[in-house]
Amino acid sequence: MSLETTLEQSRQKYEDELVEFLKIPSVSARSEHKGDMLKCAEWVRGKLADLGMEAEVISTAGHPIVYGEAMDAGPSAPTVLVYGHYDVQPVEPLDEWKTPPFEASVRDGHMYARGTADDKGQIHIHMKALEAYKEAKGVPPVNIKFLFEGEEEVGSVNLEEFIRNNVDKLACDAAVISDTPMLTPEHPSITLGLRGLVYMEVKLTGPSQDLHSGQYGGGVVNPANALAKIITQLKDDAGRVSIPGFYDAVKDLGPAERRSLEDTPITEEDFEREAGVSATGDGEAGVYWLERIWARPTLDVNGMVSGYTGEGAKTIIPARAMAKISMRLVPDQDPRDVRGKFEAYVKSLKPEG
Question: Which of 69, 119, 151, 152 is catalytic?
Answer without folding.
Answer: 152
